[in-house]
Write a sequence for this structure.
């Protein structure tokens, strides 16, 4: 059974930091591209950051220079370090696992709430 479990969300003041983690089980983690997405109320889910199986990263323009995605294949985890948080970063953050190719698979976590407010 595949599970992606996010943790680390919460309430933080503007300018603060949070670190999200996603623990994966039931997949060959090192072969998957991993990503963090977010969905704010009334808005579509959007890509925040992604990291390939080889370690290449990409970020949404809105978070470049503030957020950092990383993965630990030994621990089957992917993390998102979020600094200089803004109220507009408030959303539910989801972890996603993608395996490309002819046996493509996609899995989602249930999400963790991040609220940036004073």
């Amino acid at each position: 059974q595949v599970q992606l479990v996010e943790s680390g969300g919460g309430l933080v003041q503007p300018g603060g930091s949070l670190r999200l983690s996603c623990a994966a089980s039931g997949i060959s983690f090192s072969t998957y591209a991993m990503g963090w997405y977010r969905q704010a109320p009334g808005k579509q889910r959007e890509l925040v950051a992604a990291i390939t199986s080889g370690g290449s990263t990409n970020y949404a323009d809105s978070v470049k220079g503030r957020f950092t995605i990383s993965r630990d294949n030994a621990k089957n985890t992917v993390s998102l370090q979020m600094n200089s948080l803004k109220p507009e970063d408030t959303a539910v953050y989801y972890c996603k696992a993608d395996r490309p190719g002819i046996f493509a698979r996609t899995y989602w976590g249930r999400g963790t709430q991040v609220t940036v407010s004073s």
DSSP finds no helices and eleven strands in the chain.
